[in-house]
């Protein structure tokens, strides 16, 4: 197969441009991750997540998490909600060095559901935040982390 130089150069330039665009996109995502999932104070994390939207406590979010965690490294949590038009769900642990534990953007077709295993450093409030276009809704529960599973 004979390849002419002009076609080779055009193809190489096109692939290089696509590679640069992909690299820029990857770097932008890395900056976002570094900003949101960085160690820092709880208040700053909440301010960043709320994006200026008001926060409203609600009973339309079900935060299923044990009240006592015998192993703070593996705390199961499930979040569901009956709120309409949810854009994202986030879980924030007040006393963790990195308060934002997980955040998921949701497509409108998806049922609002999130399940994970959290690492909780100390006894703390755990918040589930549900973001809509105009408001962030929240619910919180206190989780007591025990040492060695002794319940004390």
Helix/strand layout:
Layout: H1 5-36, H2 42-50, E1 55-57, E2 61-64, E3 68-69, E4 75-81, E5 88-93, E6 100-105, E7 113-118, E8 124-131, E9 136-145
Parallel strand pairs: 1-9, 3-9
Antiparallel strand pairs: 2-4, 4-7, 5-6, 5-8, 8-9
Task: Give an overview in words.
With 152 residues, the protein is an alpha+beta fold. The chain has two domains: 1-36; 39-145, SoxY domain (Immunoglobulin-like, Sandwich). The protein is 27% helix and 34% strand. The protein is built from two helices and nine strands. The strands form two sheets. Strands 1, 3, 5, 6, 8 and 9 form a six-stranded mixed beta sheet that branches. A hairpin with a 6-residue loop joins strand 5 and strand 6 (100-105). The protein is elongated and about 70 Å long. 21% of the residues are buried.
Task: Name the features.
152 residues; alpha+beta; Immunoglobulin-like; 2 domains; 6-stranded mixed beta sheet; 3-stranded antiparallel beta sheet; elongated
Summed up, what is this model?
By secondary structure, the protein is an alpha+beta fold. It is 27% helix and 34% strand. A hairpin with a 6-residue loop joins β5 (88-93) and β6 (100-105).
């Amino acid at each position: 197969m004979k390849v002419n130089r002009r076609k080779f150069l055009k193809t190489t330039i096109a692939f290089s441009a696509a590679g640069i665009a992909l690299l820029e996109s990857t770097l932008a995502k890395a900056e976002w991750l570094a900003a949101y999932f960085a160690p820092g104070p709880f208040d700053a994390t909440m301010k960043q997540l709320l994006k200026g939207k008001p926060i409203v406590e609600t009973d339309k979010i079900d935060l299923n998490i044990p009240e006592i965690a015998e192993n703070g490294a593996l705390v199961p949590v499930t979040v569901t909600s009956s709120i309409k038009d949810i854009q994202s769900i986030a879980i924030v642990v007040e006393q963790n060095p990195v308060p934002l534990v997980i955040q998921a953007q949701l497509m409108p077709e998806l049922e609002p559901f999130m399940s994970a295993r959290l690492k909780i450093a100390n006894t703390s409030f755990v918040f589930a935040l549900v973001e809509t276009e105009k408001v962030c809704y929240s619910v919180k529960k206190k989780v007591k982390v025990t040492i060695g599973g002794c319940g004390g």
